[in-house]
């Protein structure tokens, strides 16, 4: 079944995004510093752009599709858990904040790895970082890509392969030609759609359910535990839910795709505005979308596949054109995450691997050429993997999340704020964090009733401090006075 | 030489930590303080269970206002360029 009312707004949306890509390409061609322009947009972002690109990069398929699906089954407890993401709006920017902006300019860092390399003066740090970014974010990109294609498939009635190709071509074209500037500008559009879509769908769902009182009444009748903070099956313990603060709130500092944005803005004012706008945006989306999942239960009962809750609900409760606009929101969320990841993996390969290890003397022309090609090839490789889609979308996504956080969180935070942090501390904490995360994930997920990420983060913190202190005599290298 | 801008940056990072602690306390306190017990005996505010209203709705709005005040009152403008730069 083909829904034209959905296809037309999506189509308009894609055209605007293409136009932004071509406009940004002009800036790339006119820029005097290709690397800084292509991978950081010339460090010119204002407050609104910064907030939107942070929020849109962070908000992904799981916020719009997976998350509401879980809320549908677990109830208000899952909305409570989702609200642990509020700090992602202000905490990250306050911690990285001005210090990261000043130091990354001083080091002339284009990527997060650039910063780590100059701070710790260690090729091993660069190597571990590059490998973990490429592996984890490739996996995460594939998951998002599959999500995007499945969404187009279910909305338009096209088959999976065609849907995947449409999605891939759109993203690849504007990212490859426009670079970071195109990514940030389209993020602003996509972020706006995400916020508006959330608000419209929330209102539509409340109206369709006959008001909050009515909906809560039906939920109470069906299963009173839907209204408790512990989840419909009692599985959401306070300890478990609290440890999500580490995964989706605080640890977000360690996500390279987020951290790199904290070096791309213009001035203090932009930062201040971005913190407010970003917190408001993330609060609205996370609260709205997850609450929508709960409210959907009495409105459209009996949906078996969790990922179908949001699209089904939208088509059910909203008039055709509005439904089209709202369904552009998860599209936007997926695209804006994928484009950031693509840009980041590409910058890692070009700047951190190629320029670092393979050809440090590359000319501007070579760099330009390689950047376009690397971005294209990575994009196509993701498409290839997505043809044979892996199953658990949220799981894959969270795997990448936790792995990167375990690796990077302390190296970044201590690198900025602790003058005794040295390369031995950084290397050992990255290895401990990564190995422990993967081991716990495979062997005993959510051990002791805490989210998998908790212990690796604590262990890598302790390792970092002890090893740094123990090796002060060997290396107290620190290029920046604190 | 100590960079005066780093002192400001460090202070603002600490403010971030303080805000997160307040955020967590509100979120946790209301959710599990009021959410214990039988949902059939919950108080409701605007149709929502009271724990949910305070923890997720009022708490979030309160945090946004608090962040706004913190930025207006405590955060300072600094230049990101080192002095020897042309800017």
What is the CA-based Rg of chain B, rounded? 20 Å
Mean pLDDT over the residues of chain A? 89
Distance between the termini of chain B: 21 Å
The largest sheet of chain B, given as strand count, sense and whether it forms a barrel, is: 2 strands, antiparallel
Structural class of chain B: mainly alpha
Just name the CATH architecture of chain A.
Up-down Bundle
Determine the CATH topology of chain A: Sodium/glucose cotransporter
Stretches of chain B where pLDDT is under 50 for at least 5 consecutive residues are: none
Instruction: List unreliable stretches of 5+ residues of chain A.
Output: none
User: What is the CA-atom radius of gyration of chain A, in angstroms?
Assistant: 22 Å
Q: Mind telling me the CATH class of chain A?
A: Mainly Alpha
Q: Provide the number of structural domains of chain A.
A: 1
Kindly summarize this structure in a few lines.
The complex is a heterodimer of chains A (about 475) and B (about 90). Chain A has about 475 residues and is mainly alpha-helical. Chain A contains 19 helices and no strands.
3D architecture notes:
- The complex is a heterodimer of chains A (482) and B (87).
- Chain A has helices at residues 4-30, 34-40, 47-58, 61-74, 76-82, 87-106, 112-120, 123-156, 160-208, 212-222, 238-250, 256-259, 268-299, 309-317, 320-358, 364-386, 393-417, 423-443, 454-470.
- Chain A has 482 residues and is mostly helical.
- The longest helix of chain A has 49 residues, at 160-208.
- Chain B has a domain at 18-74.
- Chain B has a two-stranded antiparallel ribbon.
- In chain B, helix 1 packs antiparallel against helix 2.
- Chain B is elongated and about 65 Å long.
- In chain B, 30% of the residues are buried.
- Chains A and B meet through helix 5, helix 6, helix 10, helix 11 and helix 13 of A and helix 1, strand 2 and helix 2 of B.
């Amino acid at each position: 079944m083909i829904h034209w009312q959905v296809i037309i707004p999506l189509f308009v949306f894609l055209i605007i995004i293409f136009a932004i890509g071509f406009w940004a390409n002009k800036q790339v061609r006119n820029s005097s510093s290709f690397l800084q322009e292509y991978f950081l947009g010339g460090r010119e972002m204002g407050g609104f752009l910064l907030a939107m690109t942070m929020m849109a990069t962070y908000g992904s398929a799981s916020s719009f599709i997976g998350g509401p699906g879980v809320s549908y089954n677990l109830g208000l407890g899952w909305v409570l858990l989702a609200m642990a993401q509020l700090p992602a709006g202000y905490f990250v920017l306050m911690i990285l904040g001005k210090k990261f902006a000043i130091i990354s300019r001083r080091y002339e860092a284009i990527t997060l790895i650039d910063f780590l390399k100059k701070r710790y003066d260690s090729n091993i740090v660069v190597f571990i970082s590059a490998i973990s970014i490429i592996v984890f974010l490739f996996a995460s990109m594939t998951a998002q890509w599959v999500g995007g294609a499945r969404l187009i498939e279910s909305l338009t009635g096209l088959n999976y392969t065609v849907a995947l190709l449409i999605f891939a071509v759109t993203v690849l074209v504007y990212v490859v030609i426009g670079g970071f500037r195109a990514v940030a500008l389209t993020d602003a559009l996509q972020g706006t759609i995400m916020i508006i879509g959330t608000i419209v769908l929330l209102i539509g769902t409340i109206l369709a359910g006959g008001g909050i009182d009515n909906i809560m009444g039906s939920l109470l009748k069906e299963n009173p535990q839907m209204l408790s903070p512990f989840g419909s099956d009692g599985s959401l313990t306070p300890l478990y839910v609290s440890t999500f603060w580490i995964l989706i709130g605080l640890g977000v500092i360690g996500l390279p795709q987020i951290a790199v944005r904290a070096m791309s803005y213009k001035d203090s004012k932009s930062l201040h505005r971005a913190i407010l706008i970003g917190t408001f945006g993330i609060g609205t989306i996370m609260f709205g979308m997850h609450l929508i999942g709960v409210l959907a239960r009495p409105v459209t009962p009996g949906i078996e596949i969790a990922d179908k809750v949001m699209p089904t609900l939208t088509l059910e409760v909203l008039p055709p054109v509005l439904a089209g606009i709202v369904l552009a929101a998860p599209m936007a969320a997926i695209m804006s995450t994928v484009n950031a990841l693509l840009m980041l993996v590409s910058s890692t390969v070009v700047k951190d691997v190629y320029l670092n290890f393979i050809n440090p003397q590359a000319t501007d022309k070579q760099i330009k050429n390689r950047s376009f090609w690397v971005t294209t090839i990575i994009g196509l490789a993701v498409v290839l993997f997505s043809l044979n889609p892996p199953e658990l979308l949220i799981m894959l996504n969270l795997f990448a999340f936790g792995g990167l956080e375990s690796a990077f969180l302390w190296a970044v935070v201590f690198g900025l704020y602790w003058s005794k942090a040295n390369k031995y501390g950084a290397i050992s904490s990255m290895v401990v964090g990564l190995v422990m995360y993967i081991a716990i994930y495979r062997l005993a997920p959510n051990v002791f009733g805490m989210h998998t990420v908790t212990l690796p983060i604590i262990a890598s913190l302790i390792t970092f401090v002890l090893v740094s202190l123990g090796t002060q005599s060997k290396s107290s290298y620190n290029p920046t006075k604190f | 030489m100590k960079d005066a801008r780093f002192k400001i940056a460090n202070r603002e990072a600490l403010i971030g930590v303080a805000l997160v602690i307040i955020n967590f306390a509100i979120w946790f306190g209301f959710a599990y303080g009021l959410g214990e017990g039988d949902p059939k005996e919950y108080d409701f505010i605007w149709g929502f269970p009271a724990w949910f209203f305070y923890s997720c709705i009022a708490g979030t709005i309160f945090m946004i206002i608090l962040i706004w005040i913190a930025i207006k009152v405590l955060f300072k403008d600094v230049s990101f360029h080192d002095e020897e730069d042309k800017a």
